[in-house]
Specification:
Oligomer: single chain
Distance between the termini: 44 Å
InterPro entries: ArAA_b-elim_lyase/Thr_aldolase, Beta-eliminating_lyase, PyrdxlP-dep_Trfase, PyrdxlP-dep_Trfase_major, PyrdxlP-dep_Trfase_small
Largest sheet: 7 strands, mixed
Bound molecules: ligand F0G
Protein name: Tryptophanase
Keywords: Lyase, Pyridoxal phosphate
CATH class of the largest domain: Alpha Beta
Number of domains: 2
Cofactor: pyridoxal 5'-phosphate
Family: Belongs to the beta-eliminating lyase family.
CATH superfamily of the largest domain: Type I PLP-dependent aspartate aminotransferase-like (Major domain)
């Protein structure tokens, strides 16, 4: 059961099917353009959407808003130092700000960044620094039906091959994303982190964690990795951070705050250069674009997030929803992770070709039938067409992500998601695909307009 009870509530909106049809037409079938008050269950993201605890709110009230050297900073600094062990900690307003500051300091044109999978903003910040971002997912990741427990791993053989090969001198950093959000929210094993760490040290390449979901990764390690069953998630997380040379962190996930992030580094010289950029573009080094109260709430959230009872319930509710989804006759990327489920829309809607966006069609149905908002991760997100609209590239899988905000929705909300999917699955054959009517040159899924075909 949930290891907490509800003290503050917020009403959720209910709409009629006719209102949802009108809303969809108004936003040209782009779900990002819906007003949140038109959405009943919002599973667009688990980022910044969690519920604060009473202790976090109390910590926020005690926040010290001094411009420099605030008490809040020192509390935050102490908590993050104990958790990660890094010698230098710089606050940032969210994950992508931490990425921008670190990557633009470390990378330059011609350099190569390697990762199990770069998250969108991580890739964008590598590319903005003029470097190349290359993903090296492990071979098991390609089979989305395999229940293999650590499909988030980096491909160690490929990493070794690149580091020892002719491109080795170009590699400026390796980033392991835990859990691997771009790779279906799958965890990374400690063995894989250890091997990556050893390879990077042997080749003098800095190794960082993109630690947005470090606690969820640690929980799955305690469940599934040999030798870690008797460890606490906190112990696993501490060990993981210490295997890397630093981290970038979006605290909007496993910091359970609405805004916040940080950079952790061991290299003093690198930290000094990052600090100067941080001061110029984010804020002074003791607040990094955040208010004192944000730092206090983040410190408290980072302490709560590794509590076994919290993590056990989070894993439990994800598998509860996975069960409901399976019962509705819909497949997911296996095994279910913790922060999200990825529905296999391509398999549910085989009559819709990739360039008519089966994932988007399913996301639209989830809203139309159940007022549920989700995110397409298929050919609308990853595909490309030529000028005439003929497809030139489609996504490897047509997926829809149901992200689970922390401590927000209960089992009856997720029952509604399961029931909605069962209704959709029953008339799957009649679900229509879409055509893009207008799109932007980059990140088109955010701004594209569409119409049914
Ligand atoms: N790294 C990972 C693995 C992420 O999932 C995200 C954000 C970021 C970095 C960037 O952090 O949003 O604080 O700037 N992921 C969100 C999502 C947006 O919905 O998955 P941010």
């Amino acid at each position: 059961m949930e290891p907490y009870r509800i003290k503050v509530v917020e009403p959720i909106p209910f709409t009629t099917r006719q209102q949802r049809e009108e809303a969809l037409r108004r936003v040209n079938y782009n779900l990002f353009d819906l007003r949140a008050e038109e959405v009943t269950i919002d599973l667009l993201t688990d980022s910044g959407t969690g519920a604060l605890s009473a202790a976090q709110q109390a910590a926020g009230m005690a926040g010290d808003e001094s411009y420099s050297g605030s008490r809040s900073f020192y509390r935050f600094h102490e908590v993050v130092t104990e958790l990660t062990g890094y010698r230098h900690i710089l606050p940032a307003h969210q994950g992508r700000a931490a990425e921008r500051v670190l990557f633009s300091t470390l990378l330059e044109p011609g350099k190569l960044a390697l990762s199990n999978t770069h998250f969108d903003t991580t890739r964008a910040n590598v590319e903005l620094a003029g470097a190349e971002a290359r993903d090296l997912p492990c071979p098991e990741a390609k089979d989305i039906d395999s229940p293999s427990p650590f499909k988030g791993n980096i491909d160690i053989d490929e990493l070794r091959r690149i580091l020892t090969g002719p491109e080795g001198h170009r590699v400026a950093m390796v980033v392991t994303t835990i859990t691997n959000n771009g790779g279906g929210g799958q965890p990374v094993s400690m063995e894989n982190i250890k091997q990556t760490s050893a390879l990077c040290r042997a080749h003098g390449v800095p190794f960082f964690l993109d630690a947005a979901r470090f606690a969820e990764n640690a929980w799955l390690v305690t469940r599934n990795e040999w030798g870690y069953q008797d460890r606490t998630p906190r112990q696993v997380a501490e060990e993981a951070f210490r295997l890397a040379d630093g981290c970038v962190m979006s605290a909007k996930k496993d910091g359970i705050v609405h805004i916040g992030g940080f950079i952790g580094l061991n290299d003093g010289e690198l930290a000094q250069r990052c600090e100067l950029l941080l001061i110029a573009t984010e804020g002074f080094a003791t607040y990094g674009g955040l208010a004192g109260r944000d730092l206090d709430m983040m410190a408290q959230g980072l302490t709560e997030v590794t509590e076994p009872s919290y993590l056990a319930e989070r894993a439990e509710i994800a598998s509860y929803l996975a069960h409901r989804v399976h019962a509705a006759g819909v497949d997911i990327l296996e095994p279910p992770g913790m922060h999200a489920l990825y529905l296999n829309a391509g398999r549910l809607l085989p009559h819709i070709p990739p360039h008519n966006y089966p994932g988007h069609a399913l996301a639209v149905q989830l809203y139309l039938v159940g007022g549920i908002r989700s995110a397409e991760l298929g050919s609308l997100y990853l595909g490309e067409e030529d000028e005439a609209g003929n497809p030139t590239k489609s996504a490897p899988y047509e997926l829809v992500r149901l992200a689970l905000p922390r401590r927000v929705y209960t089992r009856s909300h997720y029952d509604h998601v399961g029931e909605t999917l069962a209704v959709i699955a029953k008339h799957a054959g009649s679900v229509q695909g879409f055509r893009i009517t207008e799109q932007s040159p980059i990140l088109r899924h955010f701004r594209a307009t569409l119409e049914p075909v």
